[in-house]
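tool=predict chain=A
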Amino acid sequence: MNRNHTRRGLLTMAAAGAAGLAMPSLVRAETPVEGVRRNASSFRMQDWQDHFDDLGKATLICDTQSRAVHFWSGDGSDYRIFPTSVPISEELTKRGYTKIVRKRVGPDWTPTPSMVERNPDLHYMPPGPDNPLGTHAMYFTWPAYLIHGTHDTRKIGRLSSDGCIGLYNEQIEELFGITPVGAQVRVI
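tool=predict ok
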């Protein structure tokens, strides 16, 4: 038997053995624990034409199932997708058509009465690192619903908001920069 062939065979067997040892952890990583979802989005492609007649100034589709915001520029030349956090329950999830009516860098935050009812310790927060709206916010026509950033990156990919759509601060800054006031939005 050729000496190189033997070495190659040993290396192949060693690699197969290492893969076999790693396999249980890979299987565990893919096996869902009841009631727990991993902090990752499984994006589903969206087609804006399934939701709107035209792109308007720009179009956003907030997909609460796959936990992603889809963006199309008004001329259709720019399509981007962003991972998001979504509302923690069906009761807090509002679906339908709206639009971006204002945008703000360094938003302040006031909890809604229902938030204070659930957690009396909540109070007004000025812009800053503890503010739950992060660095940028884009407001819908619906009161108290918006797309905003978050300083708590563990929330992205999870059911974690009180109704809003949250993005990493770097990504809300990007989306904020390309989304005009008047952009049409559908939350599905």
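The longest helix spans residues 3-30. Helices lie at 3-30, 113-118, 169-178.
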